[in-house]
Amino acid sequence: MSGAALGLEIVFVFFLALFLLHRYGDFKKQHRLVIIATLLAWYLCFLIVFILPLDVSTTIYNRCKLAVNSSPAESNGSYVTLAPSKQKCFKPWSYIPDGIMPIFWRVVYWTSQFLTWILLPFMQSYARSGGFSITGKIKTALIENAIYYGTYLLIFGAFLIYVAVNPNFNLQWNQLQTIGIAAANTWGLFLLVLLLGYGLVEIPRSHWNGAKRGYLLMKTYFKAAKLMTEKADAEENLEDIMEEVRKVSESIKYNHPLRKCVDTILKKCPTEYQERMGRNMDDYEDFDERQNSYPSEKSLAKLHKQVIYSVQRHRRTQVQWQILLEQAFYLEDVAKNESSATRQFVHTFHSQEPENKIIQYFYTPTVEWYWECLLRPWFYRVLAVVLATFSVIVVWSECTFFSTKPVLSLFAVFIQLAEKTYNYIYIEMACFLTIFFLSICVYSTVFRIRVFNYYYLASHHQTDAYSLLFSGMLFCRLTPPLCLNFLGLTHMDATISHKNTQPTAYTSIMGSMRVLSFIADGFYIYYPMLVVILCIATYFSLGTRCLNLLGFQQFMGDSEMTSDLIDEGKELIRREKRKRQRQEEGENRRREWKERYGNRDDSTRSRAVHTDQKESSFTETNANRPLSKYTRSNGRTERDRIELLQDAEPLDFNADSVNDDPLESDSGR
């Protein structure tokens, strides 16, 4: 089993990252380099979280070996050994051979740092660029990142000059490397505590509120009102951009040098706008530089960038609106079925997507009723209590992990108790649950946060390239300080435990933080205590109230604006529900009519065609005969009879199909 656990986790984490990226990204429409870079960033960060417990168990085993093999004189030397067991140390099932973990961590860490500080910022600018060639996009990205890269180079250059001039400093390359790592971890820890303080409170509270059906329904109505406003704004913005594209397309003719740029812009427009613009083009007209003023390539690149953004935003709001409607309809069905005497879940609308037959076989309407109306609320309450307990333990440990005598951090107590008996399964499970909960609190906040329309992770393949790359940057900057914070909570970091024991392979590549004592003994120790203040602020929704005061509507039960938006959203959902009911009723009537009169319609149409052929042959044979004075033309009668025979389709009333043209209404009698 040596190294097998490492290989299995590497494969599992890859498919986990691929699954999440497929949920948020769009593999078919987005650039392959964007998908690969984001997948690599997510994969490396998740890999660190999953592999670190194996590093902890391997380190404890190595300490045990060292304690057993060392003599009493050696035990007081370079290593302060723990109380050795009288029995022989048992090798853990997930033991990783010596020399593998340092190389593995070094490759993973420096690759993630290269992504977050160099490659991903450049790709962000490249993805948002409106250039029409690879060279143009690279040039735009370099110009936009010149200030970004120049600032870091200036700071690093000034620091090197200060170290070279000051005789008191004699820093080597390893120490400079440690200072760079400490600077990156300090920036990441600053952001980590902010996100962690929000997630520790919001995750248990969201699960507790998930058990309240009325709360979820009211919040869905609130979201519907806000999303409708955003949807209307996106449609209006798209119309304005498409109008500019139309003007540019009409002014730049087929033989203009910039026509290729216009064609590239047109390919990014929706299909209906492309067809509309294609019908209005006059390609036979030549351009005349003396009579008209044409836009420059720079202005076309700016228009191209606006088209990409507006089309993506319009598509995202359309998909989110449909998803929100399904969610609102389902919550209303749950509220109706709670008082059902038959205890079978009845849906108002059938699912538009085909369901799996295996799921239909096991997840019957009766099982669905018991889960949705009876078991699910209690499950969410129990889960919320468990998560709240974990949050309290994390807050307590963040405030007391610097204390080594006595040990007050609960996570350190659990690990040390398991270390005495060398129960590696318990050690790995405790470490995994701890770091997994911390990661969920931090990463879920990254997925929830929204910075206007510039950064927004939307599910169902609606996240743009800029947001995907930005999330990869955040993950790569947050994961290393998150792991160091976890090792500090469990006292596996020698900087925190103040013991000269063998460090983990992960902390060994970070170097000794004693080079910067004010960071190791000050910022790393006392700054995480700020999580208490952030948790209190999140519990009382201080951030939400501040956003409301600034004009950004947030869901608050005691707000008058919230009540108005809930009523507006409720009316929007009711309107969409009536519209869908009319559509389904019309489809059902058409289906029933086709099943009942389908054969009769076919025979009627065949008789009508036969009558037409007979009349046409009769007309041809009598074309050369003189017309009798008393002959009556029965063309009108035959034509009316044929129309009545052909009119087999029922007239279904639909508000969208009402026509005011009297000629068309006469033809459909």
From TrEMBL:
It is a multi-pass membrane protein. This is LMBD2 protein. InterPro entries: GPCR-associated_LMBR1, LMBR1-like_membr_prot. The keyword Membrane applies. Residues 582-617, 635-644 have a biased composition (Basic and acidic residues). The gene is Lmbrd2. Belongs to the LIMR family. Residues 224-251 form a coiled coil. Keywords: Coiled coil, Membrane, Transmembrane, Transmembrane helix. Residues 658-669 have a biased composition (Acidic residues). The chain crosses the membrane at residues 6-21, 33-52, 103-126, 146-165, 177-201, 378-396, 425-446, 466-489, 523-542. GO terms for cellular component: membrane. Residues 618-634 have a biased composition (Polar residues). Residues 576-669 are annotated as: Disordered.
